[in-house]
Write a structure and sequence with these properties.
Length: about 130
């Protein structure tokens, strides 16, 4: 199944793909100018890659988790995506991405860390799916 993951932030949306087995690759992050533009770009990405399952990182813990969950779910409701949407815990995915990229990524605003966070989220999903 063609699967993608997104890590939705206020400025950028990290994106990762898994087109076969368990090989996960980051794609260029989507820069958010506004939520409609970003939702449109995510829709284009999902159509272009013929994605069947969309994994969405969702903050579970933290003081602003409820607000971020509301924002993420609202953003997903703007998509025209008709495949399966799965929400999974994204806690510490950005930290894990930064650790993976230590010494490799110099610019923090180019979206690479955001897309590596999406890779982490997608790898978590695939690992849990394979354990079932």
């Amino acid at each position: 199944m063609k699967t993608a993951a997104i890590d939705i932030g206020l400025k950028r949306i990290g994106v990762a793909l898994c087109l076969q087995s368990d090989i996960v690759v980051p794609k260029s992050a989507i820069l958010r100018k506004n939520r409609n533009q970003a939702a449109n770009e995510v829709d284009i990405f999902l159509r272009e890659w013929e994605i069947e399952v969309l994994i969405v990182g969702l903050a579970v813990d933290g003081k602003s988790a409820d607000e971020m969950q509301r924002r993420v779910k609202h953003f997903i409701s703007l998509l025209k995506f008709e495949g399966k949407v799965v929400y999974i815990d994204e806690d510490f995915s950005s930290y894990e991405a930064k650790e993976k990229m230590k010494g490799v990524v110099k610019q923090k605003k180019d979206g690479k860390i955001d897309s590596i966070s999406a890779v982490v989220i997608l790898e978590r999903y695939l690992m849990n799916k394979n354990e079932d």
